[in-house]
Amino acid sequence: MWMIALGAIIVVTTVSSAFLRSSVTSPSFSLLVTLIFQEDQYKEEFLGEFSKLAKYVRQNEPSTIAYELLESDQDPLRVLILERYKDKDTAYLEIHKSSKAFLEFRPKLKVMQEAGHVTIDGHSYQDSRMGFVGRE
Q1: Are 29 and 87 in contact (CB under 8 A)?
Q2: Model confidence over 58-85: pLDDT tens digits?
């Protein structure tokens, strides 16, 4: 609640938390994708392909905020890919998903998935603008 004194008149206004979180720009868009491999050889094959894609994304997609592979400390065959984009429509759909590197990578992963070498579970999220990621 804000109170502003204007001469003898006091103006009281309430601003909702949703309004404070909103802005003119679209919220950041994130994907969290869990992959569980059947054997270490499939995970190693995937890591080789993913590292090429991650290098491309880092060098060519400035609107990708984060693109990181996390390895489980409890299950050596489980990884989590954390993807974070400035927005869904442009950074993710137009730039990332149509890049040459992604279009070469995704069919290779699909072959592994269809052969039963990996299971994939992914979910997408929009930034709530509460909390923080990183420090500046």
Answers
A1: yes
A2: 999 999 999 999 999 999 999 999 999 9
- Dihedral in degrees, nearest 10, Cα atoms 3, 130, 66, 108: -140
DSSP letters of 8-75? TEEEEE---HHHHH--SSPPPEEEEEEEEESSHHHHHHHHHHHHHHHHHHHHH-TTEEEEEEEE-SS-
CB–CB of 93/87 below 8 Å? no
25, 57, 130 from 53: Cα distances, Å: 27, 6, 30
Q: Is the predicted pLDDT of residue 5 greater than 80, yes or no?
A: no
Q: Tokens in use for 91?
A: 């950074």
* Nearest partner of 29 among 62, 55, 65, judged by Cα: 65
d(CA 77, CA 36): 6
Do 76 and 27 contact (CB within 8 A), yes or no?
no
The half-sphere exposure of 56 on its side-chain side, counting CA atoms within 13 A, is 16
Helix (H, G, I), strand (E, B) or coil at 113: helix
The tokens for 4 are: 């502003």
